[in-house]
Amino acid sequence: xxxxxxxxxxxxxxxxxxxxxxxxxxxxxxxxxxxxxxxxxxxxxxxxxxxxxxxxxxxxxxxxxxxxxxxxxxxxxxxxxxxxxxxxxxxxxxxxxxxxxxxxxxxxxxxxxxxxxxxxxxxxxxxxxxxxxxxxxxxxxxxxxxxxxxxxxxxxxxxxxxxxxxxxxxxxxxxxxxxxxxxxxxxxxxxxxxxxxxxxxxxxxxxxxxxxxxxxxxxxxxxxxxxxxxxxxxxxxxxxxxxxxxxxxxxxxxxxxxxxxxxxxxxxxxxxxxxxxxxxxxxxxxxxxxxxxxxxxxxxxxxxxxxxxxxxxxxxxxxxxxxxxxxxxxxxxxxxxxxxxxxxxxxxxxxxxxxxxxxxxxxxxxxxxxxxxxxxxxxxxxxxxxxxxxxxxxxxxxxxxxxxxxxxxxx
Length: 411
Prior knowledge:
This protein has 16 helices and no strands. It starts with a helix and ends in a 9-residue tail after the last helix. It is mainly alpha-helical. Helix 4 packs antiparallel against helix 15 (334-381), helix 5 packs antiparallel against helix 8 (172-194) and helix 13 (294-313) runs antiparallel to helix 16.
């Protein structure tokens, strides 16, 4: 594409990359991960699973994700993001479709681990692409658009899965996994066809990259690459998100059905509203962090999450539940948005993928700990309240820790 074509075009291809990124996240996380919350009750009933076993399936997915994250920066350098993302989605599609035929608990664990590996192959490369296609003052908004795929996935599964369960009864969860696998396959095809590895491939410049900014970009892009303390700081903040958000995401539907005595349809409806609200989560807080700074954006998000966990932890009634759902939905996908943008801001284009992979290890480790540990606590204590309150303590500390991050030099 020539520079003349670029001027004539009404839409910069970077926005197409961002929309394709939303499809990638919709497929790899919105369906492959968050659908599990809606499928848990039916799977538990047919397979006779304890809460600890249910949590372990989720933990296996996160362990697979962590494994993939360790190798993703190397794969990106060798095969480029577009190819890695496409392979990851095809792997997820195969794993989800296969789960629909399985009754062995350990086979399901293994397959869901494979889906987690596919998720790891999608997330880091997709965020690295955003760093390539968008300058700092547009990056938070762009990542926010990408993570809208999470909310779309929650909305989709919140309506689809109860519908399939009503049609097929006890075996409805199997049909749900099969349908999700087919949808992810379509997402893989879209990624393979429309993603591009960099603006250079189309003779373009990143969105928001002015002439003077572009000229000094290469000189600044590795300025903080060796700062291990900054990586650890961001990583610990990301760990706090990983260890807490999927406790709520894994068990809130079960909590609504047992503690609040709601029907599966009503619980699914509320879960879908989390998806509706979370659709705006990344865009709102990503854009806000573009304006006020990443550290203040992170602190505000953790404060909102703390409110969500406290309200259900103390069982503040239906009104408290609804406020909790709103707070959780508003904040749930904001931390990944800001972290992806912060990696690009602090470490530049060439260092962003490695830095994001490093802090995502903390995040994935938290994810691996959260559901399994909280499920075991529920089995011992017999209630969900304490695990939500523990999550609120962690996010409260993280909100304070965010204020000590260094200022960002925009590039």
